[in-house]
Amino acid sequence: MTIEFESPKPIVQTQFMLKTVAEEMMRSQSRYFDEHEHEIPWDYIEFMHTAMKATGAGSLTPKEKGNGHDGGEQKEKRPPIGYQSLAAQIEMLAWGDVGMYLITPGGGLGAAAVQAAGSPEQKAKFLARFGEEKPTLAAMCMTEAGAGSDTSAIRARAVLDETTKEWVINGEKIFVTSGDKAMTKYEKLGKGFVVVWASIDPSAGRSGMRAFVVEAGTPGVQVSKLEHKLGIRVSDTATISLVDARVPYDNILGSPTVEKTTTGFKGAMATFDATRPLVAASGVGVARAALEFLKEKLKESGVEIRYGLPRNKLTSIERDVIEMEIQLHSAWLMVLKAVWMADNKKPNALESSMSKIRAGDVVTKITQKAVEIMGPLGYSREFLFEKWFRDAKITDIYEGTGQINRLVVARQILGYSGSELR
Predict the structure, then answer these.
(1) What does the pLDDT read at residue 343?
(2) What burial class does residue 204 get, using C-beta atoms within 10 Å of its C-beta: 0-12 exposed, 13-18 middle, 19+ buried?
(3) Which end of the chain, N or C, is less surrounded by CB atoms within 10 Å?
């Protein structure tokens, strides 16, 4: 079996186009939007929406038809590259600015949940809107005040009204990435939605957990708070309250019948298995941004990295930079393995969590070391080093903390269930 490390041509072409976007529309605006938290970069959003429509990127979810290269049928059968292409796109956009990447029009975690657990009819209904006239965003609502990493502790409740055949949802979700832009009626945005995780039978534990598509404009749904954050400041992180919010019966993702299985919870985990490597890719993008700019500044100061010399012949800075490069490449290779497995429909829970753990560690270490090497200039706001340092930490926190992902890895390797190893 031959292992190919060269990126397929469609991915290379997309990266080339996105690099211009990352340099001209993202990196150049990074400082401004970091200092003007929650201000919306409409030029970037509208440009990316137009570009995604033109290229058929749609909801930023992999195509299901054809070979994955362009979503169409091909005479020559080729390996699927949907998630691999997404990872490359996300890495490049995060290299430009990870906060702006997070508000790129498209489905994000919300669309990923529909993709993982929705019926063909639901996918057609909800994912199609990302290719409509206005840019649209979606989000995932899982975390609660008493249910962060322990998703089994979710208290949001969905009750079926037998008279109207609607689900009535009550609960409060916190730390919802892009929740405001997905649910607030901005004139320039299309009708977004959030995917809310709630229990239809609390006595059934995880077996009773289900996801519901809750559309913008649903009565009883309110964005009640916006967080002020350390990093990714252009991306909103919202609290969403649901009080007797009525959702159509068909908006439930998965079966409305509760059985003594963990089907509902597995739907959530299937979403994360697909998206955690993409989060890792965004962390790799931030790390690469910091490392490349560090090498540029060192070169301007007359410091060249002398590759190929014995370690004892290198300066301390040279050893640090080479070690940072090793860490960066190792993290990216783990991302590639996880997304390759997703493309080929291989179980990747272990590799997914491992890639996110590694990327979370690496981006934190690389950005911190870049600040250290640059000294006062790294700590100042003259350059973006301190911003990358602040942006880095979220990689280790959202979509499952590093600690939780280490538990996932341990369970996968040792063969323990969640109740056996906590």
Answers:
(1) 92
(2) middle
(3) N
Mean pLDDT confidence for 68-93? 73
Token readout for 379 is 């700590």
* pLDDT of amino acid 68: 40
Host H or E run for residue 98:
helix 82-102
d(CA 107, CA 125): 13
Task: Note the pLDDT tens digit of each residue in 335-386.
Answer: 999 999 999 999 999 999 999 999 999 999 999 999 999 999 999 999 999 9
- Six token digits for residue 241: 């309250």
Which helix (H) or strand (E) segment is 140 a member of? strand 138-141
Residues constituting the chain: 422
Task: Round to whole Å and give the CA distance between 198 and 191.
Answer: 22
Is the separation of the CB atoms in 93 and 104 below 8 Å?
yes
In this prediction, residues 171-196 reach a mean pLDDT of 95
**Can you read off the two tokens belonging to residue 240?**
């969403």
Please report where in the chains the tokens 């012949």 appear, as a residue. 313
Please answer whether residues 94 and 285 qualify as being in contact, where contact means their C-beta atoms are separated by less than 8 angstroms.
yes
Structure tokens at 333: 């290779």
CA distance linking residue 216 with residue 181, whole number of Å: 9
Residue type, 27: R
The closest of 122, 225, 121 to 183, measured between CA atoms, is 225
- Rounded Cα–Cα distance for residues 409 and 404 (Å): 9
Two tokens, residue 315: 């300066």
Residues 94-143: pLDDT tens digits?
A: 999 999 999 999 878 899 889 888 999 999 999 999 989 999 999 999 99
pLDDT digits (tens, 9 = 90+) for 276-293: 999 999 999 999 999 999
User: Residue 71: its pLDDT value, please?
Assistant: 42
Residues with catalytic annotation?
A: 399
Domains and CATH numbers, the chain: 9-108+118-129 (1.10.540), 136-261 (2.40.110.10), 265-414 (1.20.140.10)
> For residue 194, which of 171, 170, 177, 219 has the smallest C-alpha distance?
177
The 8 Å CB, 24+ separation contacts for 157-165 are 157/198, 157/199, 157/200, 157/202, 158/198, 158/199, 158/200, 158/210, 158/212, 158/247, 158/252, 159/200, 160/200, 160/249, 160/256, 161/246, 164/246, 165/249
Termini Cα distance of the chain: 38
396, 360 Cβ separation under 8 angstroms: yes
